[in-house]
Design goal:
Layout: H1 27-46, H2 58-93, E1 111-117, E2 120-125, H3 131-147, E3 163-167, E4 173-178, H4 181-194
Length: 203
């Protein structure tokens, strides 16, 4: 699974507003902005001309008001689409996790070692059977954090913007990586801080 910060495919038809990207804000903030823009558009569309229709330029003024209202509506649609994208992403990644349990910070461990890899870290688990479950939990929490714009109050420092969580070539391992060098350094630092290590017993 790719967990790069892919944006919702939203096309902007106006120069007055920047392209709305899914990761610009949380799903809730996108919903609020969509409602605000729609309300302003409705107000602009319902406003009467500033001068009698017979006066020169009033038709041009009314046309521009309608264009402004439509641009607002388009911006509102973009925000609504971004919110839906984030919500669906969370629901897909957390389909086996009840909503009440998605905020829990997944345990990185028990692991026997943490190694640096290009872009981040590789965590090797003591019990290979735990790996699929841990990957699912980690991806769910990442989606949960992403839909909330990585709010620091969520309290899970390993889950930051723009990471990918995947199984390593070794079935006992999980790799957490990023394309951004700054994020890669952060993963290496925090990964070792968050990992729960266990020592293998000799037989």
């Amino acid at each position: 699974m790719k967990a790069w910060p892919v944006v919702a495919l939203l096309l902007s038809g106006c120069a007055a507003h920047e392209l709305v990207r899914a990761d610009d804000m949380s799903a809730t903030q996108h919903r609020q902005e969509a409602q605000r823009e729609q309300a302003v558009a409705d107000k602009e569309a319902g406003a009467g001309p500033a001068a009698p229709a017979a006066e020169a330029g009033s038709d041009d003024w009314s046309t521009e008001r309608r264009r402004q209202a439509e641009r607002r509506r388009e911006h509102s649609r973009q925000h609504a689409s971004a919110a839906e994208f984030l919500e669906q992403f969370e629901d897909r990644e957390c389909r086996h996790v009840p909503a009440a349990g998605r905020a829990a910070c997944p345990l990185l461990g028990p692991v026997v070692r943490i190694d640096d890899v290009p872009g981040g870290i590789r965590a090797t688990f003591a019990d290979p059977e735990r790996v699929p479950t841990v990957i699912a939990e980690m991806r769910c929490h990442y989606a949960y954090a992403r839909s909330r714009n990585f709010d620091e109050t969520i309290g899970c420092p390993l889950y930051v913007r723009g990471i990918e969580i995947r199984q390593g070539l070794d079935p006992r391992s999980i790799e957490i990586v990023s394309r951004e060098e700054r994020t890669s350094r952060l993963l290496r630092e925090r990964g070792r801080q968050q990992a729960v290590f266990v020592t293998r017993t000799k037989r």
